[in-house]
Structures are given as structure tokens and as C-alpha cells.
Amino acid sequence: MSLDPQPLAPALEAAEAAGRTTVRLDLGGVRGKAGLMRRCADALLLPEWVGGNWDALADALRDLSWLPQPMPMPMPMRMPRGGGWLVAVTSWRGYADACPGEWETLLEVLEEGVDFWRERAPGGGGPELVVVLAEGEAGPGPVAGAPPRAPRLKRRRG
Known about the structure:
The protein is built from five helices and four strands. The protein is α/β, with parallel strands linked by helices. It has a four-stranded mixed sheet, with helices on both faces. Strand 3 (128-134) and strand 4 (140-143) form a beta hairpin. Helix 3 (54-61) runs parallel beside helix 5.
């Protein structure tokens, strides 16, 4: 797979310069949950224990200790103060159109991950997870964790 880095390059470079670990999650060609879970596992370098379901992905986004770290890591957080992760989700419109219910669930899982890290570090003093939706030349989309467009689902399926 190829990813045109032009629209994202400045944002990714700035995030890395600020001490964030950057991850590109390219959803080009993904048309179902199984493909999405494989793509997430590959992009996020998920450990083998992470299953291919929504709850497992949500749990993994609350850990992230296995991702490469750009700077030395103090204990116990194992992340530099003020660092964190930026996940750039690209080529997502095809998946969102093909599987709108799954897309909404993915957004919910990503928003929960963002909220988890934000709540752990009130005042912005610790690592946080930022998720940016980007689509080709159209530029960045909304940031996960922004006010939801619709009420969140209370329960995820499978």
C-alpha cells in the first residue's frame, strides 16, 4: 500500500518533533470488520493477545506500551511527559461508506481511547492520544474526542 504523505507530512513532523509517536492507519480498500482489525493490528503493532473485536481494540488503545517510543521513558507511565501518540487515519471514506455502522463503532472506540488518555493527565501534563482523520488532498478531518455528532453507543457488538 502507498500513502501520499503530502497532506499529512507537516502534521506528522510537528507531532514527532513534539515527542509524539506517530502512526498511520490507512483504511484504503478495507470493506469489513475483519480487514479493519487486521489493518489496525498492523498499523498499531498490536501484540498477539489483542483479539479481533471492538472491546479488544478499545483495551489496546488504553495501553499502547508496545509502540516505539521517540524519547527515553520514565517509569511508571513509560512515556515522556507531554508526549503521546498521534494516529492519522487515512483513506477512511470508502470504509465509512461501505460499513457505516462499523465506522461509527470505530469512531466510538477511538474517541474512548482519546478520552481515556485525556482523563489520565488532567491539565495536559502527561501523554495523550490524538486521532486525526485525513482523506487524500481534502486535508484533515475531525479530531477524535471532539464533541460527538450523535449519541455514543452504549454497547458494542462482537
